[in-house]
């Protein structure tokens, strides 16, 4: 699954799933562009580390995914985009009648609208190059729902719908568009929640993971960022040339229920 000579842009990739995807794509030989809304020395250091360890070119470009013009500017500044991974996302939990309007707007902007802007900017580059892959990191919540997550569920369902539309618009071209729908993934953010959850339920680590955090994930195991990165790499490979407009669930059986 070599991607040597390709360039991949991964939004929201200075931590968690996005960073894991960046590492796996780089290991497949692609040059990578990392992104987030900050512009710290450690952000650029991540790109330097990936370049050093994998031998590809890697750089970091600051862009706020809540702003459409910055989403498009990210693609333009990168200059080339063979693989686009729309990963940036945020979450807020509240009943819909109490859901803060600013949180709703931010979640829709970052989780869904950003994918529209980046894809619209990237497709002309892919067409010019004669090859392209768009991979949207959706969620199990792009296929099903949970209470108190109205904005997130709406945004991720929207991402799945947009994925199908882009796939149809590019169906006769050497460009594919798919969505990956993860369940619960062991990221640093989730790892940090485990001690508080253990204290809240007076349970040990393994018990709180299996009985509380992974209650809806039948495998009772977290997905890993490496597994998601590997799934992205597969969707970019020749083996996946005829896979477009679909979702791949990496959720331990969640959406099979």
UniProtKB/TrEMBL annotation:
Gene3D superfamilies: NAD(P)-binding Rossmann-like Domain. Keywords: Oxidoreductase. GO terms for biological process: monocarboxylic acid metabolic process. GO terms for molecular function: 3-hydroxybutyrate dehydrogenase activity. The keyword Manganese does not apply. The keyword Lipoprotein does not apply. Its EC number is 1.1.1.30. InterPro entries: 3-OHbutyrate_DH, NAD(P)-bd_dom_sf, Sc_DH/Rdtase_CS, SDR, SDR_fam. Belongs to the short-chain dehydrogenases/reductases (SDR) family. This is D-beta-hydroxybutyrate dehydrogenase. It comes from Falsiruegeria litorea R37. The gene is bdhA_2.
